[in-house]
Write a structure and sequence with these properties.
Helix content is 42%, strand content 19%. It is built from eleven helices and nine strands. Strand 7 and strand 8 form a beta hairpin. Helix 8 crosses helix 11 (282-291). Residues 95-290 form the Malonyl-CoA:ACP transacylase (MAT) domain. InterPro entries: Ac_transferase_dom_sf, Acyl_transferase_dom, Acyl_Trfase/lysoPLipase, PKS_NRPS_Biosynth_Enz.
């Protein structure tokens, strides 16, 4: 006799077995009884069994007057690993000191340091003389160089333990790291490109700029942005970044705050990154990259 589960909240059931019949037998059994929540908890532990031991996986949704279930044979394949590389330096100084105990990491950082010594920037010294707050990282050149050198070293560690990524995504200056991961660029080329990207900005005479994250949609920000402020990053459905002149962005953010829109300033070291302001330095950057 089939039992209709009269429950207000549908119960999801997960189970795996050696054969399809094995899983189906359990699902049929659930039509004749009302097990406790603890029983379902025990069932769900089976999904942690290795694929080659129990290749048939199924789910069943117990709900009133309706049945939804599916059983499939899954292949024993490794799930791909993706590298997500983002440009942030909040915890780097403290983290790097601990990672320097790993030989692969330390050797990689030393190579990056050697590549930049000619330009008067010592990555190791920059890292070891940091206080815990990281307040001495005031130069965008120092920040970019340290971030990229650290992530090169992290990639080297992953490579050393045999991890091969199925894909890689880079954000901002970290797009350079994508070239290192797929071996189209060497570590030295990447660290020099990061260094010159930042140094070119420092040597430019760009108007003081800033960036602010806003808790509004991309379509909304496009409608309300003043002419000299530009939507620059579409981070999520309701989370975007705008870039532009420092005073204009500050006034715009204050206005949105009054309308109860969440805003937070992005540490961009006085530059309106990710917008057309950067066009003014492209030619200088090209020349610097060519001579390096």
């Amino acid at each position: 006799m089939k039992l209709h589960h009269d429950i207000s909240v549908p119960q999801l059931v997960l189970f795996c077995g050696r054969t399809q019949e094995n899983v189906q037998y359990l699902f049929d059994y659930l039509n004749t009884t009302e097990p406790s929540r603890e029983f379902f908890g025990l069932l769900h532990k089976t999904v942690y069994t290795k694929y080659n031991a129990k290749p048939y996986r199924g789910y069943k949704l117990l709900q009133k007057d309706q049945e939804l279930a599916e059983i499939k044979r899954v292949k024993s394949e490794k799930r791909p690993v993706w590298y997500i590389l983002n440009c942030t330096a909040n915890e780097f100084p403290i983290m790097i000191k601990s990672l320097m105990e790993i030989k692969v990491f330390a050797n990689s950082m030393k190579k990056s340091t050697e590549a930049l010594k000619h330009y008067g920037l010592d990555i190791i010294d920059l890292m070891t003389n940091q206080d815990k707050s990281g307040t001495s990282l005031i130069s965008i050149t120092a920040v970019f160089s340290l971030i990229v050198a650290t992530q090169i070293a992290l990639i080297d560690i992953l490579k050393a333990v045999g991890i091969v990524p199925g894909g890689v995504i880079g954000h901002g200056v970290e797009e350079l790291l994508c070239g290192y991961v797929d071996e189209s660029l060497t570590a030295e080329q990447v660290i020099l490109a990061a260094y010159w990207t930042a140094r070119t900005l420092e040597e430019s005479k760009l108007e003081a700029g800033t960036m602010v994250d806003l808790d509004i949609s991309w379509s909304e920000v496009q409608k309300c942005c003043p002419k000299d402020i530009f939507p620059s990053r579409h981070l999520a459905e309701w989370y975007v970044t705008v870039s532009g002149p420092k005073n204009s962005v500050k006034n715009f953010a204050e206005k949105l705050k009054e309308e109860n829109v969440f805003t937070t300033e992005v540490e961009s070291h006085g530059y309106a990154l990710h917008c057309h302001h950067m066009h003014a330095v492209t030619e200088s950057l090209r020349r610097n990259l060519e001579k390096s």
